[in-house]
């Protein structure tokens, strides 16, 4: 029986000159000169995080300096309201009506007319209830480190506010003068964002029937008046 088979045949390959663009489309993407592995080997993950936080803090510090410069310019050009003096550490709360261009009290307004970075931090209802249930001296000890930081971090003559708080703690707990108490994390975060005026206002809210917080509040008013008198004397 006969069979059919291919014998002595050749298959030629046609050579085609492809353009460089066509070759590029079929190629793999370029490799970066510095790989991620090399970078990771030089810097640990926590170092990346520290660098990011450092840059963020630097930007916030620069923004704060710009804000202070803007406030100084406004102070020199505008007749401030009564609550604006001592901005931003001992001034009153921001005037909501002024933000809406609806404040007609002008210089007699008891709220601050200068710009604030954000909405003033406040305690929520649950946090206020928790603080009101604490012994008074415990709450005052909790407040002390934040008041001290604000007083020592300002050039204003507000040392009397700190002295009042320390004296009150000493009177209420003569047997344990060391002001070391635990502050819940969420409350601590709010206190850290508060100005000196905000901390004093919180003391008045938590201890509404107590005479002591009102003494601190009156001292803040004295500081504002002293700043106002200094500005008037400076401007002539």
What can you see in these coordinates?
The chain has 236 residues and is mostly helical. It has two domains: 48-108; 125-235, no CATH class. 57% of the residues lie in helices and 0% in strands. The protein contains ten helices and no strands. α9 packs antiparallel against α10. The model is unreliable at 32-46, 59-77 and 232-236 (pLDDT under 50).
What is the share of helical residues?
55-70%
Overall 3D shape = elongated
Per DSSP, the total helix count is: 10
- Output the helix-strand order: HHHHHHHHHH
- Percent strand equals under 5%
> Low-confidence parts lasting 5 or more residues at pLDDT below 50?
32-46, 59-77, 232-236
The Cα radius of gyration reads 33 Å
State the separation between the terminal residues, measured CA to CA: 129 Å
Task: Give the number of domains.
Answer: 2
Going by helix content, strand content and strand pairing, the class is mainly alpha
Question: Quick one: biggest sheet?
Answer: none
Mean pLDDT: 72
**Strand elements, count:** 0
Organism: Cladocopium goreaui
Protein name: C3H1-type domain-containing protein
List the helices and strands and how they pair.
Layout lengths: L19 H7 L9 H7 L2 H33 L18 H4 L25 H9 L2 H17 L6 H14 L12 H9 L2 H11 L5 H24 L1
Helix pairs in contact: 6-7, 6-9, 7-10, 9-10
Quick summary:
It comes from Cladocopium goreaui. This protein is 57% helix and 0% strand.
